[in-house]
Design goal:
8 strands; alpha/beta; TIM Barrel
Length: 209
């Protein structure tokens, strides 16, 4: 299991120390919100660049925005590993091509109420599928265990079609819900509130792994 701490719930007044405290993770997850696609705002490219400058970890960028095409180029940094857009956003095909053009891994995310069938046409073009296990927009929500059915479906589709995309979940991940993720076949977990509320985050990351 790979772990991607979400800095959304980190203390931004001590960003360097916060990033250092999770430096043994696999990725740093950046939740980018436009206040339109989801009813919340997070931070923009300047803060994202500052985060990159203070970590050696690859960046897992999650664009919770209505118009990803205008945002994709702004979050392409040397350490950007994935840029994930929502299947529910505008101009999905064009945004996928824009990410590919930047030589960055393409991710597609689904809100809890969005069925798997909506992403089927894109599965040959993506390196990551992000299954939201809470409604996107705010940290600290409860894990939606029924979303593990989507994960199981994706594991089956991936195997039957010889595909290689990673399956990620985001929302409500902690030392209890991680067991459901493992059982369903998740590859990467995003953890925010759980990790950043811990005193010993290194132990928290190892526990999730």
């Amino acid at each position: 299991m790979k772990v991607a701490p979400s800095v959304l719930t980190a203390n931004f007044t001590s960003l360097k120390d916060e990033l250092k405290s999770v430096s043994q993770a696999d990725y740093i997850h950046l939740d980018i919100m436009d206040g339109h696609f989801v009813p919340n705002l997070s931070f923009g490219p300047a803060i994202a660049k500052s985060i990159e400058e203070n970590t050696h970890l690859p960046l897992d960028v999650h664009l919770m925005v209505t118009d990803p095409l205008q945002w994709v180029p702004k979050f392409v940094f040397p350490q950007t590993k994935f840029i994930t857009i929502h299947i529910e956003s505008n101009h999905v095909q064009e945004a996928v091509l824009a990410i590919q053009k930047e030589k960055v891994g393409v991710g597609l995310a689904l809100k809890p109420k969005t069925p798997i069938r909506t992403i089927i046409p894109y599965l040959h073009d993506v390196q990551l599928i992000l299954v939201m296990t809470v409604e996107p927009g705010f940290g600290g929500q409860s894990f939606m265990i029924e979303m593990m059915d989507k994960v199981r479906d994706l594991v089956k589709i991936r195997k039957e079609n010889g595909l290689h995309f990673a399956i990620e979940i985001d929302g409500g991940v902690n030392d209890e819900t991680i067991h459901y993720a493992k059982e369903a076949g998740v590859d990467i977990v995003v953890a925010g509130s759980y990790l950043f509320n811990l005193e010993h985050r290194e132990q928290g990351i190892e526990g999730l792994r």
